[in-house]
């Protein structure tokens, strides 16, 4: 028999917003085709339109209309090195071209993952890599479901502020 979890996972669902993809496409036009709802590129579980992730606060509670689902914002996401692999076709922010291998096999060469000049670093320092929800009450999500903010217990802790403090 498995053990029951003591509480909801801090990283129950990974979400990304249309607004964050828009900011990424604007800053990284050479990657625009890889940064959008047609081809979500950050491994998110949820893609949310009409929500600005920079305005979300740690602890915000949302209900999903008509489902009984309750979600709570837990933290900004720190993107992994896969971002640079997935988005390697765009090259570096300094214009360096990546050549040779097919896009799915290209690896970044040059700046280290934690330094300036790559997609991962840009998403990290601008808090644009998505965020995590705790699932307080589960259920079935469907395309087009609407989130409603029901509680904001920590209005002085927006994800952008936390991201700037942790990664900026």
Could you give a short description of this structure?
The protein is 18% helix and 19% strand. The chain has 168 residues and is an alpha+beta fold.
What does this structure look like?
By secondary structure, the chain is an alpha+beta fold. Helix content is 18%, strand content 19%. The chain has four helices and six strands, in the order βαβββααββα.
Number of helices: 4
Q: Report the helical percentage.
A: 10-25%
Read across the widest sheet, the strand sequence of neighbours is 2-1-5-4-3-6
Shape: globular
Beta-strand proportion: 15-25%
Look at the structure and give the mean pLDDT. Answer: 80
Stretches with pLDDT under 50, minimum 5 residues? 89-114
Strand pairing plus helix content: what structural class?
A: alpha+beta
**SSE pattern:** EHEEEHHEEH
Helix/strand layout:
Blueprint: E1 13-17, H1 18-27, E2 46-48, E3 61-64, E4 69-76, H2 82-86, H3 119-125, E5 131-137, E6 147-151, H4 159-167
Parallel strand pairs: 1-2
Antiparallel strand pairs: 1-5, 3-4, 3-6, 4-5
């Amino acid at each position: 028999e498995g053990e029951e979890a003591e509480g909801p996972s801090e990283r129950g669902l990974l979400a990304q917003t249309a607004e964050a993809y828009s900011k990424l496409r604007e800053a990284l036009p050479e990657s625009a085709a890889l940064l959008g709802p047609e081809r979500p590129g950050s491994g998110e579980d949820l893609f949310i339109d009409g929500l600005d992730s920079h305005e979300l606060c740690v602890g915000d509670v949302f209900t999903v209309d008509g489902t009984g689902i309750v979600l709570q914002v837990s933290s900004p996401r720190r993107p992994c090195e896969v971002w640079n692999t997935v988005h390697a076709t765009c090259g570096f922010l300094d214009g360096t071209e990546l050549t040779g291998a097919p896009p799915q096999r290209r690896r970044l060469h040059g700046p280290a993952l934690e330094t300036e000049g790559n997609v991962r670093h840009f998403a990290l320092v601008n808090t644009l890599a998505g965020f995590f929800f705790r699932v307080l009450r589960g259920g079935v999500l469907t395309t087009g479901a609407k989130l409603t903010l029901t509680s904001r217990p920590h209005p002085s802790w927006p994800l952008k502020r936390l991201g700037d403090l942790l990664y900026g």
